[in-house]
Every structure is written in structure tokens, then in C-alpha cells.
Amino acid sequence: MKSVTVPRINGQRLWADLMALGEIGFAEGRGVTRTALSDADLAGREWLVGKFREAGLDVRIDAACNVIGRLRSGQTGAGLVAVGSHLDTVPQGGRFDGMLGILAGLECVRTIREHGMELPRDLEVIDFTDEEAAHNAGTLGSRAMMGLLKDGELERSVKQGRPSFADDLRKAGKDPTRIGEACRDAKEFTCYLELHIEQGARLESQGIQIGAVTAIVGIYRYLVTVEGAPAHAGTTPMTLRNDALVKAAPLFTLLPEWVKARDPEMVGTIGYLELFPGVPNVVPGRCQFVVEVRSQRSTDMVHIRELLKAYAASREGWCVETILEKEWTPCAEPLIQAVVDAASKEGLSCIRMPSGAGHDAQSLAAAGVPTGMIFVPCRRGVSHSPGEWTEPERAADGCQVLLRTLLSLAGQQQGEVGRVPHSGA
Fold first, then answer.
1. From CA 415, how far away is CA 40, in angstroms rounded?
2. Distance CA 194, CA 126 (A)
């Protein structure tokens, strides 16, 4: 591979983009709310399309509403290098989760073009739809692109009365019955890179500037429904109640006990709960909540799943439905090393580390695309919060490492990058 001189990205321009995009869906004291395919998300996408076109990218929006900007090399059949992430946020989220990866990819394109560089293969910057699970399961856009969606998934909603992904695709002018047109052959991609804030405190606490991600955590998620009987809260004696919340409550403390007993590195969360009818003067007739477990070992997640199902089966009125089972996914070793080497050449400290958060990169890796991720520190490890923050210098560091890494990978032959076997969704 020929050595290349790597130009400097414009960190001030990158930061200005981050701040400008962060105003779309922002409310003082409540952070950024730009849930997937909401009006705010559609406005953010429109803003991004304009920026892509200004940078000279060919832009298209696929059947899953993924926004794809392509810098053409003038060569055909060489495969392409892709970078990306997502613009959608959790409710009351921050300015960096997902956004940094896309805008850093945009800044890399600008830098390449401004310095008259011509890549030996095409480069794509991709904004994947609904990474944050606004509709049901997350990473919908990237899984659609890799052919990993499950039957019926588009019609499910995370909450009663909320639009499904299919509903919002129609609102955005897409036909959900044609979602398969978003699917692409993994062999089309030479590799995929994603820059992201760490969403944890390891890098900041150790004073490390760059994380080279070795693997992405597995996530299993289940919707649990507990049926009781609604009744008047003032006239129904305690001894005659069939309170769905009371029936469900023991599991709320059992889950963390199960998880800690299995593996101290594993995590389990009940972060969503809804009562029906959900009013103060009615005994809950139904309780629904989501159980999520994350681990780097599938056997641990299976163990908790089986405990949950056995517990539910032994009780009247309980039902467990699978929302998502996404396996632990390794990054490609040549890409991990490429990130380490790029950080070293930029004079930045770097460690290898796993990701405890899920990312769109996981979908591509699961489909067999050689995948790598770059982490930069975030303040106190806070994410999915209005307090989410990384310093301008850290954002620029990550973008510079991304540029150096993708330039090195874009110059390699297809077989040199190293493919990983398909590991399932």
C-alpha cells in the first residue's frame, strides 16, 4: 500500500456543524429530542442532505429512509468504504450520540476534496434510520440495509398508540412493503467505520484520547405483560385485588440479582413500564415493561432469558415476547489495528476496549462487513441526557483518526481488510 500524506481536518467547522445540528429538536433544559422520523428528525435530515450536497456528495434516500451520501472515485468494481452513524436521538438526549459519526464523515469528505485527493474506491457517509429504538427494536435502518429485519417488525410499536415504523415510513413518503429494496450485498463494502462518543467514563477517567473498539455488546430485549383485573381504587379491598403492578413488582428486584449472580460485567435494566388504564383511581389491570440484558457472552444472556421465561411460565397471567436478540459482535482485527496505528501516528493515546452500547456498526459486522469503531471521551461518561458532552478538541481528534484510518483502508486491496464470518442479527 502506498503511503499517503494525511491532511488536517477543520475542527472548528466540525464543531460548528455539531452545534448547528444540535439546535434542531433542542429545548432549553430538556436537551435534544429528535426521535426517528419525527418532524425534528425529518428537519435534521433535510439539513444533512443540504450539507452533503454542498460537499459534492451524490445523495439518495433508500427505502428504509437511510440518507446516503457518496463520494465517487471514478473507478468501478473496487468496493467502497463507508462511514456513518445516526441523527435520531432518545427523548431529551444530547448533541453528540450518533451525530459526531455522521458529521465527522462529512468533514472527512470535505477535507479530501479540498486537498484534491482522489480515493481508489468510493466513499459513503450514511445516516441510518432509528438507531435508538423509537418504534420497537433499534438499529432499524442498518438492519434493513443488511437484510436482518424480522417478519412483522415494521408494524410493531414500542408503546400502545405510538406509530409503528411502517406508519412513519408512509409519513416520510416511503412504502413499507418495499423495505427490501434497502437491502445491499455485504460484499459491496470493503469496510465500515463509525466514530462515536464512548458513552462511558473509561477513557476520560484514564486520560486516554482514543478508544479502538474490539467488540460491540450483545443486547437481548423482551416485552413482559402481566395481566390483572382493573377495579375501583377506593372501593376494592386489598384482599380482593388482582393488581397487575403488584404481581409484576418482585421481578423488578429479582432481575438485578439474577444478573449480578451470573456475571459482574453483565447489565440488566427495566427502563420502560406502562400501566393500564394508567390512572390514579383504578387498580392496574395490566402492567407492561421491557427487560433488557447486555453482555459480551451470549450464554449469559440466554441464561437470564430462560430464568425470565421460567418465572413467567410459573405465574398466572404472564407473557414474555421477544423484541430483539442481538448477539455480541467482534470488530475486524485489521480495522482495530488500523485505528490504533492511526492514533499513534497522530500522537494520541489509545487503548483497545469493548463497547457496552449498541451501534449501527453491529448490523454491518453481523452481516460480514469488516467493521471498526473509534471512541472519544465524553464528560463523566454521561450520554442519552442533556448533559452529554465532549470537548471540541476530542471531537477533532476522533475525526482526524477517522480520516487517517479510512485513507489507509481505502488504499488497500479488497482482501487485505479481512472479513469476519456472519454471526447473525
1. 41
2. 10
Residues 6 or more apart whose Cβ sits within 8 Å of residue 59: 49, 52, 53, 67, 68, 69, 70
pLDDT digits (tens, 9 = 90+) for 169-192: 999 999 999 999 999 999 999 999
| DSSP string over 270-336 | EEEEEEES--TTEE-SEEEEEEEEEES-HHHHHHHHHHHHHHHHTSTTEEEEEEEEE--EEPPHHHH
Query: What pTM was computed for the model?
Result: 0.86
Question: Could you check whether the bond before residue 277 is cis, i.e. omega within 30 degrees of 0?
Answer: yes
Residues with Cβ within 8 Å of residue 60, at least 6 apart in sequence: 68, 70
Which residues of the chain are modeled with pLDDT < 70? 1-4, 160, 412-425
Q: What is the pLDDT, as a whole number, of residue 268?
A: 97
Residues in the chain: 425
Residue ranges of domains in the chain, CATH in brackets: 11-217+328-416 (3.40.630.10), 219-326 (3.30.70.360)
Question: Are β-strands 371-376 and 231-232 bridged in parallel, bridged antiparallel, or unpaired?
Answer: unpaired
pLDDT score recorded for residue 421: 37
Residue 138 near residue 360 (C-beta atoms within 8 A)? no
B/e letters for 79-101, b = 16+ CB within 10 Å, e = fewer, are bbbbbbbbbbbbeebbbbbbbbb
User: Which pLDDT score is estimated for 422?
Assistant: 36
Note whether 191 and 370 are within 8 A (CB).
Answer: yes
CB 323 within 8 A of CB 223: yes
Identify the bridge partners of residue 48 per DSSP, sorted by sequence position: none
As a whole number of angstroms, the distance between CA 128 and CA 130 comes to 7
User: What's the pLDDT at 136?
Assistant: 86
Cell of residue 74, nine digits: 471514478
pLDDT at 5: 82
Summarised one tens digit per residue, pLDDT across range 252-266 is: 999 999 999 999 999
